[in-house]
Amino acid sequence: MKVRLALAGIGNCASVFVQGLQFYSGGEAVGLWHPVVGGLKPGDIELVAAFDIDARKVGSELSEAVFAKPNVAKRYVEVPKTDLKVDAGISKADVAPHLARSKITSSGRSAVSRNLREARADVLVNVISSGSDRSSEEYALAALEAGCSFINCTPSLLMQRPKLVSAFAKAKLPMVGDDLMSQFGGTLFHRGLLSLMVNRGVKISRSYQLDVGGGSETFNTIDETIKMAKRKVKTSSVAFEVPYKFETVAGTTDFVDYMGNDRTSYFWTEAKGFLNTSLTLDVYLRTADGPNAGNVLFDVIRSTYRAARSGKLGTLNEICAYGFKSPPKPMRFIEAYQRFASVFVN
Asked: Which domain covers residue 277, as residue numbers?
């Protein structure tokens, strides 16, 4: 049994995912969180289609495209050549800032849908740039027309569009999202710290998370409109861990080109303990964006495919709450993991 997978957006996240697929398909287990999800191993995922709008990638063979500029993700493993080439993707006049001066090669929804059908794709993963909301929705509609499950890893809030969600439900196709959460990234780490403090009876008053990174995703996020939208998603995700009102902000503050695909997150929290004594937490976390997303993306793809094949579409919120910052029905991260694991891992 193979998950026939399509990728929309061959950026840094896709680059590391493709490398991870090569690495783990051979049976390697080092660094792999869940070797089996929904009865599927990483080697059960097969790439059958890829889309992008950057002329430097469109028409290129996938093993070359994943390392093409402006990608800055590290080359962890060699990716063998295949017959799979990157097709022209969708652009609805919402090109990401990092592509503002690049040559764009795009096609329409019907062409993408046709390619998905011809490739017999089971799942389309949307990993295009932040801020491309209209294009993200068009990819979702293309997947729907092709009879393909859809995973939205971007901050575009597609799960909050009732007509789109209803259309997938009517077609009995999984649609999950929004905004992929890393295995141990800033948002998850922040939530974990706050959850621990709450569970130990500490009263939180204020907290912030400030991210600095390199790569095209961070560059796009410093655009003021995209920054505020992303900040809203992150802040809401973090605040959900605390069962009372407190002041909090979480978001990207700056871009440093030489950091590449790496990110540094700074966390500060002010709280009160016994006898109203002060407690201040001040820490930082350094991570690499692409690899940090890899394990969760592997899990989300396999569980989405299993939900589609088994017809258990009622389990989709377990996937959303486990793997995304802005699910339709948020859960605290411990509950989300336990519920996901009980359905798809154990």
From this structure: 186-288
Compute CA distances 101 → 54, 55, 98, whole Å. 10, 11, 8
- Please write the tens of the pLDDT for every residue from 271-290: 999 999 999 999 999 999 99
Task: Indicate if the pLDDT at residue 224 is higher than 90.
Answer: no
**Collapsed DSSP state (helix, strand, coil) of residue 222:** coil
Q: Are 124 and 164 part of one and the same domain?
A: yes
Residues 175, 245 within the same domain:
no
Q: How many helices (H) and strands (E) does the chain have?
A: 11, 11
pLDDT of residue 34: 97
How many Cα atoms within 13 Å fall on the side-chain side of residue 224?
0
Q: Give the amino acid at 236.
A: S
Question: Are 175 and 299 in a shared domain?
Answer: yes
- Asked if residue 58 lies in contact with residue 86, where contact means CB atoms within 8 angstroms, the answer is yes
Our CA angle for 120, 314, 317, nearest 5°, is: 90
CA distance 271 to 122: 48
d(CA 261, CA 174): 30
Any alpha helices (H) in 53-132, and if so which ranges?
A: 62-65, 109-119
Q: 217: domain CATH number?
A: 3.30.360.10
Per-residue CA distances from 326 to 129, 231, 281, 323 (Å): 17, 12, 26, 9
d(CA 189, CA 76): 25
Helices 12-24 and 289-310, axial angle in degrees (round to 10): 70
Is 125 exposed, middle or buried (CB count within 10 Å of its CB: 0-12, 13-18, 19+)?
buried
Of the candidates 31, 5, 1, 2, the one whose C-alpha atom is nearest the C-alpha of residue 18 is 5
Q: Do 173 and 318 belong together in one domain?
A: yes
3 state DSSP class of 205: strand
Parallel/antiparallel/unpaired status of strands 45-52 and 149-152: unpaired
What is the C-alpha separation between 12 and 66, in angstroms, rounded? 7
User: Tokens representing 5?
Assistant: 């997978």
**pLDDT greater than 90 at residue 61:** yes
Write down the residue that tokens 């907290």 correspond to: 207
Distance CA 346, CA 307 (A): 15
Question: For the chain, what is the mean pLDDT?
Answer: 95
